[in-house]
Structure to design on (702 residues):
């Protein structure tokens, strides 16, 4: 039994813990991360070093040099001739550029590069295979894993990148692959033009024969019909009919005009010289009329001055008469001329009309044959047009061959790189990063798998239990007469204050000390609580509900009272040094066939505890381990409070969960025991500091 324990009235201040339902603050998260790093610095460093070293060695021996050749697809079309080749430039079609990139990733393209550089005999790119075809295919697959053809965003730039252990080899293969892309596009355009020219050449002979046959058929028909071309797509007969028709129309117009002139002169007569219209007057007639008018005015003037019988007036009258006769003669001549002209026009019109009727009759007889001739002419012209068009296209392709500039070219050939890809510093940083992450992950998994309880927050996650204290791992204090006991009263003060009896209560309080398994310090806590409460003035009964270790001859105690139903007072043992009363486990009256669970669950237990409540202020039950004694739940059911004891960093959360489920508690209070203060500082610094301070105060008080 423990020695006398000095009262220690100080209450342990609780470490501030985050509520379970509240999300952790950023400060709490950072503090948790820092504590995690402080707990595992050596472990993280060793694992990180173990991972980083081989990664660095691997990165050094497998280092790669990447060389890039840049290809430009120029959307600007340079025109040297008006006529282009068969295939136009790529232009601004983004899909066409992307198609070039995808084609460059095909096995056919890779095979062309392999064949061009003879990579099947290269020490690095050569694959494996028992046959030439298998070796070539394996080399193609390896080259495909080392050659990257990509487009820069949505630009017209294509990158051809090759990686290998040799800078010179990377540049050589990259330039060769880029050149194959450019050559393929050039061959595609030139080949299309050449193929088209050959196809045209094969067609030309056929088209020439067909055009000749069509023209010969038309010529034969013309010869048979005695038809002569008049040019502009018409025959001589058609041209004659057309011209006769035009001449007849003109002749009719002239005849009508001559007839109108003649009729006008005839109706006017010889005395109508002054009244003739201007259209039928002549120069001579106009001159005579002017002379007639002059003489008439002069005669009138002279007659007025000299008189009508004057010789000069008579002379003038004679001249006027002579001019009048000349006018009449001129009008007669004009009438004869108009009649002659009319008759000639009428005769010409009749002649043209007769010729036109004759030509039309001849054309009517040749009508069906002319239709056939027109069809033959159209067929011959169509065949000749197709032939001439293809002939011109063939000559154009022959002339522009090699003159059209390519719109795809290498603008920046690959140069042997001087740095690895990625650089060694990046490889070192990546290896160190992977090593550090691996070390952190290893430490995290190790802590996660080592799921022992160490902090108040972990205990709360078991089911909302409240942690009311933490006792340190103390060195054993030996006493030759009374064995050894640990004095942890400074660390259970808060627990006693929380669960102790309420002043003025009629019945005492029953407190059970439970744990998951043996060896977690239930008896030590129970004895210290009993002594602490007894020294505070309470009447305390400590019941041993589990068999104490190393007891050869059991005392008369709890099991005997439950078995025989005898007086409880007989089994009580006073502990004057500590101030509490002890009810030992007992077992003198029972045998090996007696069921401990049956005794603990019977009516006698409830009656015994009811009597103990009346006699004592506090009844503390030192219960059995919940995972090893099924009757622990019956004892817990009779207790007002249950203190679930957790051995720090030894009791697993799985055992604690299972034990709490078996105890079937409505509520429980957790208490950490045997905590390592130095290690607890790495999990809960505040709790460790408080626990250490209490130990220092206890040592100072002693």
């Amino acid at each position: 039994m423990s020695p006398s324990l000095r009262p220690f009235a100080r209450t342990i201040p609780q470490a501030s813990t985050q509520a379970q339902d509240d999300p952790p603050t950023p400060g709490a998260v950072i503090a948790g991360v820092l504590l995690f790093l402080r707990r595992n610095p050596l472990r993280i460093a060793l694992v990180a070093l173990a991972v980083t070293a081989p990664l660095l060695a691997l990165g050094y021996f497998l280092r790669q040099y990447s060389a890039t050749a840049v290809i430009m697809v120029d959307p600007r079309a340079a025109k040297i001739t008006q006529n282009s080749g068969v295939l136009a430039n790529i232009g601004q079609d983004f899909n066409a550029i992307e198609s070039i990139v995808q084609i460059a990733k095909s096995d056919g393209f890779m095979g062309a590069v392999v064949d061009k550089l003879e990579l099947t005999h290269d020490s690095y790119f050569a694959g494996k295979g028992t046959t030439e075809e298998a070796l070539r295919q394996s080399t193609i697959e390896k080259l495909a894993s080392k050659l990257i053809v990509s487009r820069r965003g949505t630009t017209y730039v294509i990158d051809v990148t090759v990686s290998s252990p040799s800078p010179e080899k990377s540049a050589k293969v990259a330039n060769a692959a880029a050149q194959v892309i450019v050559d393929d596009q050039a061959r595609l355009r030139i080949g299309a033009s050449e193929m088209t020219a050959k196809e045209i050449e094969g067609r030309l002979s056929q088209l020439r024969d067909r055009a000749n046959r069509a023209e010969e058929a038309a010529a034969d028909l013309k010869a048979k019909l005695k038809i002569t071309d008049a040019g502009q797509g018409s025959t001589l007969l058609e041209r004659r009919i057309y011209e006769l028709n035009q001449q007849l129309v003109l002749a009719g117009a002239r005849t009508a005009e001559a007839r109108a002139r003649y009729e006008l002169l005839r109706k006017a007569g010889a005395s109508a010289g002054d009244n003739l219209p201007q259209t039928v007057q002549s120069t001579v007639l106009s001159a005579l009329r002017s002379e007639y008018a002059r003489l008439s005015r002069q005669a009138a003037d002279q007659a007025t001055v000299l008189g009508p019988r004057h010789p000069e007036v008579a002379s003038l009258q004679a001249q006027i008469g002579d001019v009048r006769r000349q006018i009449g003669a001129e009008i007669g001549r004009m009438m004869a001329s108009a009649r002659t002209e009319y008759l000639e026009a009428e005769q010409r019109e009749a002649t043209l009309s007769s010729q036109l009727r004759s030509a039309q009759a001849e054309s009517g007889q040749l009508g069906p044959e002319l239709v056939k001739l027109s069809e033959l002419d159209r067929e011959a012209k169509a065949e000749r047009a197709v032939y001439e068009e293809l002939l011109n296209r063939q000559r154009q392709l022959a002339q522009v061959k090699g003159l059209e500039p390519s719109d795809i070219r290498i603008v920046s050939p690959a140069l042997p790189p001087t740095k690895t890809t990625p650089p060694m510093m990046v490889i070192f940083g990546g290896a160190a990063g992977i090593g550090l992450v691996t070390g952190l992950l290893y430490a995290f998994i190790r802590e996660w798998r080592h799921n022992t309880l160490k902090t108040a927050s972990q205990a709360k996650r078991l089911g909302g239990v409240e942690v009311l204290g933490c006792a340190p791992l103390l060195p054993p204090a030996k006493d030759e007469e009374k064995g050894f006991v640990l004095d942890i009263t400074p660390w259970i003060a808060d627990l006693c204050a929380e669960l102790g009896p309420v002043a003025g209560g009629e019945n005492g309080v029953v407190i059970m000390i439970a744990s998951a398994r043996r060896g977690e310090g239930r008896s030590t806590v129970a004895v210290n609580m009993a002594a602490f409460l007894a020294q505070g003035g309470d009447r305390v009964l400590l019941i041993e509900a589990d068999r104490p270790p190393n007891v050869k001859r059991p005392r008369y105690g709890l099991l005997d009272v439950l078995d025989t139903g005898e007086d409880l007072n007989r089994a009580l043992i006073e502990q004057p040094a500590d101030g509490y009363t002890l009810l030992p486990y007992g077992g003198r009256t029972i045998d090996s066939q007696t069921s401990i669970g049956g005794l603990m669950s019977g009516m006698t237990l409830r009656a015994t505890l009811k009597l103990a409540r009346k006699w004592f202020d506090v009844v503390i039950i030192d219960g059995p381990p919940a995972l090893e004694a099924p009757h622990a739940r019956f004892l817990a059911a009779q207790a007002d409070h249950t203190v679930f004891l957790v051995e720090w960093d030894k009791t697993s959360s799985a055992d604690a969960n299972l034990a709490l489920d078996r105890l079937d508690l409505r509520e429980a209070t957790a208490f950490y025991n045997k905590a390592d203060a130095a290690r607890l500082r790495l999990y809960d610094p505040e709790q460790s500091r408080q626990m250490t301070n209490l130990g220092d105060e206890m040592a100072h008080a002693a």
About this structure: Residues 1-21, 479-483 have pLDDT under 50 and may be disordered. The chain is about 55% helix and 10% strand.
